[in-house]
Structure formats: structure tokens, C-alpha cells
């Protein structure tokens, strides 16, 4: 049998191996690229198995029949390891632990009698699929191989939901693409289990066709967005920082309004003894929370923020009261001395208060005809 579907499965098996070789020879090698190599080769092995089954070429290579299943059991743990790099610390090595090997070992033990049987027995079992169906031991081995894939897929969804806010997920096309790819993998696994127990022998080809389209999609994504993985990782890192901050339980708009009211209505910046602790108390925040709020959401540290308001009022006074003493202006807006006022004013405006006042006088002096 060599129909279009079989050709497509053969093509995508070749594509998966080509991906794996490409990532293997890529330099420099990273943990991400190493995991990609393994995942692509595992996908290629599965697609090759389906091709040999659909074409019945297994009768010529009976000792290869079902050899793919222990490898399939490794797909879930490697998938979990691959995606774990998104939320683990950048310098942390996501290790492959001993229990990650257990599904593959269990599958091998379940099929040990079959693997050690004669070639003739294997051919007879293979050819009896359509009449007798899949033997119970094979079904058990397939379930053991597929369950880790389902677990890994749901693990990825849970972690993405844990580390990313809903609004970030909605605005990030790259993040949605990654979850969609994982979703297709889960869907293929569920279809495989369903067809194994409740459908015909064509279930394997259906699963491989889904995986084939997924591989082609991955190819197109890699061509269009070669930095897709890195960009998704940056999103997760940024979201982790957001979740670890001290302000996630606060309404930032409310804090902004409260701070603006304290500055513009109550003009607390005029208090020359105002410090971070005093302002934090009036904001019902800790000093650390206020400092983080000012730096991350206002874009200024405490002193630059307070001096901004003090200098803004000083500029108004200079314009409205051109004869007022500079020291009195400085003390009125909250500066403890004339020197600190001069330094802060020049950093904010670019010129000294005296020069600023001269400029204001020139602009306000009516021109003579």
C-alpha cells in the first residue's frame, strides 16, 4: 500500500530525522538543542513505525516490530524536560531523573516475551492484527508509553497557566502557538488511545497523520519565527519576575491615583523631612513595596520623584513671583538648603534657578515696537 497518506507519513518521518540531524550538527550546542534532537528522532522513529506497519514492510523486518514503543515512552519525559527550561532558572540543569526512564523500562518488560520470540511468531502476530485485533499486552504497553506524553502535555499547560497572566497569554501570539503545538500533541495521544480500544486498525495512521501535520507546522514556524523559543522564554522570565514582586496583590492604578493625590493635592513633598518611610506609611505600603512601585511603574527613584514635584512648583513660583528670594523658594517647596536646590534644579531643568528666572523675564518682557 503506497497511497498519499503513506507517502505523507514517510515524508514527515524523513522531515523529523532531518530536523534532528540539523539540530545535532548545530553549533554551539545547548540543553535546548540537545532535547530537540532527541524529540525529533523519537518522532521520526514513531513515524517510521507507522510507515512500516501501513506498507506491511514489517514482514521483511520482523525483529523491528514494536521496537518503537520503549522510545515512544521516552517522548513524554523528554517533552517535559524540554519545556521545563522555560520556567527553570537559566543556569539550572534540568536533569533526566531515574523515574523518567521507568515507563520505557516497564514497556520493555511487558513486551519482553514478544521481543524474544521468533521472527515467524512476530510476523504471525503482525499479520493477525486485522482479524484478532491488538493483543492485550500490546495495549497495556501502548498505554504505559502514551500516559507520560499526556502527563507532560498537561504539565506544560499547568505551568504556563501558573507563570503567565491571562492578559499576557491573550496578547502573545508566540505563547499561544507553543500551547497550540502542545495541544495537538495531546490530541494525537488521545486519538491514539481511543482508536486503540474503540476503533479500527487504522488508528495508528490517523495519529501519524496528525503528528505529520504537526511536524510540517513546526517546520513552517521555525522558518517564519526562528527565535520563537527564545521569545517565549523571555515572556515566561518576565512573568516570573512579575509574580515574585511585592506588588502583585495591589491595584497599581489605585496606587498611582493615591500617590498623585498626595503630591498634587496635599503637596506632601513640601515637607523637607519627607523620606521613603514617611511616604510609604501614607501609602499603606512597606518601604520595599514603595521603592519597587516608584522604580518599576513610575520610572523614578524616591529622590528623583520627590524633587520632580518640588522643582515643578519652584518653576511656577519663579514665573509668578520673579522677585522672590531663591532660598525662600527652595525652602518653600521642601528643599533643606539652597545648594541642594541648585543641584537638583540643574539636573532636572538643565540650567540653574537664576538662569531659568532670567529666561522667564525675557519671555515675559513685552517687545517694543
Percent of residues in helices:
over 70%
Nearest-integer average pLDDT? 86
Q: What is the first-to-last residue Cα distance?
A: 101 Å
Query: Structural class per helix/strand content?
Result: mainly alpha
General form: rod-shaped
The biggest beta sheet reads: none
Instruction: Indicate the proportion of strand residues.
Output: under 5%
Spell the H/E element sequence: HHHHHHHHHHHHHHHHHHH
Low-confidence stretches: none
Q: In terms of quaternary structure, what is this? A: single chain
Number of helices: 19
What value does the Rg take, in angstroms?
34 Å
The count of DSSP E runs of length 2 or more, i.e. the number of strands, is 0
Key words describing this protein structure:
369 residues, mainly alpha, 19 helices, 75% helix, 0% strand, rod-shaped
Helix-strand layout with pairing:
Layout: H1 4-25, H2 31-54, H3 68-87, H4 102-110, H5 112-115, H6 119-127, H7 129-132, H8 136-163, H9 166-171, H10 173-198, H11 203-224, H12 228-244, H13 252-265, H14 276-283, H15 287-298, H16 302-320, H17 326-333, H18 338-349, H19 353-364
Description:
With 369 residues, the protein is an all-alpha fold. The protein is built from 19 helices and no strands. The protein has helices spanning 4-25, 31-54, 68-87, 102-110, 112-115, 119-127, 129-132, 136-163, 166-171, 173-198, 203-224, 228-244, 252-265, 276-283, 287-298, 302-320, 326-333, 338-349, 353-364. Helix 1 packs antiparallel against helix 2.
Amino acid at each position: 500500500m503506497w497511497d498519499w497518506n503513506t507517502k505523507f507519513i514517510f515524508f514527515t518521518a524523513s522531515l523529523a530525522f532531518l530536523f534532528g540531524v540539523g539540530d545535532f550538527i548545530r553549533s554551539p550546542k545547548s540543553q535546548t538543542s540537545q532535547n530537540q534532537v532527541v524529540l525529533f528522532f523519537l518522532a521520526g522513529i514513531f513515524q517510521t513505525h507507522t510507515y512500516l506497519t501501513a506498507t506491511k514492510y514489517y514482514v521483511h523486518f520482523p525483529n523491528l516490530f514494536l521496537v518503537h514503543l520503549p522510545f515512544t515512552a521516552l517522548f513524554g519525559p523528554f517533552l517535559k524536560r524540554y519545556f521545563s527550561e522555560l520556567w527553570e532558572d537559566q543556569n539550572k540543569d534540568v536533569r533526566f531523573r531515574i523515574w523518567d526512564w521507568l515507563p520505557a523500562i516497564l514497556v520493555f518488560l511487558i513486551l519482553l516475551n514478544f521481543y524474544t520470540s521468533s521472527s515467524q511468531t512476530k510476523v504471525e502476530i503482525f499479520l493477525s492484527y486485522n482479524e484478532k485485533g491488538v493483543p492485550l499486552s500490546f495495549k497495556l504497553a501502548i498505554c504505559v508509553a502514551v500516559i507520560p506524553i499526556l502527563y507532560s502535555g498537561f504539565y506544560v499547560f499547568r505551568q504556563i497557566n501558573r507563570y503567565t497572566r491571562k492578559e499576557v497569554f491573550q496578547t502573545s501570539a508566540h505563547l499561544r502557538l507553543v500551547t497550540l503545538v502542545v495541544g495537538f500533541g495531546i490530541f494525537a495521544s488521545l486519538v491514539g488511545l481511543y482508536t486503540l480500544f474503540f476503533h479500527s486498525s487504522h488508528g495508528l495512521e490517523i495519529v501519524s497523520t496528525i503528528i505529520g501535520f504537526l511536524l510540517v507546522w513546526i517546520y513552517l514556524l521555525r522558518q517564519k519565527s526562528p527565535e520563537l523559543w527564545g521569545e517565549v522564554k523571555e515572556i515566561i522570565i518576565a512573568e516570573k519576575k512579575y509574580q515574585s514582586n511585592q506588588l502583585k496583590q495591589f491595584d497599581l492604578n489605585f496606587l498611582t491615583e493615591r500617590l498623585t493625590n498626595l503630591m498634587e493635592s496635599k503637596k506632601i513633598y513640601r515637607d523637607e523631612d519627607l523620606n521613603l518611610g514617611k511616604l510609604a506609611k501614607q501609602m499603606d505600603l512597606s518601604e520595599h513595596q514603595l521603592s519597587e512601585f516608584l522604580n518599576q511603574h513610575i520610572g523614578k527613584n524616591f529622590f528623583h520623584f520627590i524633587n520632580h514635584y518640588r522643582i515643578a512648583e519652584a518653576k511656577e513660583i519663579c514665573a509668578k513671583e520673579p522677585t522672590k528670594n531663591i532660598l525662600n523658594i527652595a525652602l518653600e517647596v521642601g528643599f533643606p538648603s539652597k545648594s541642594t536646590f541648585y543641584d537638583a534644579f540643574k539636573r532636572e531643568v538643565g540650567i540653574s534657578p537664576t538662569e531659568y528666572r532670567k529666561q522667564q523675564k525675557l519671555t515675559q518682557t513685552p517687545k517694543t515696537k
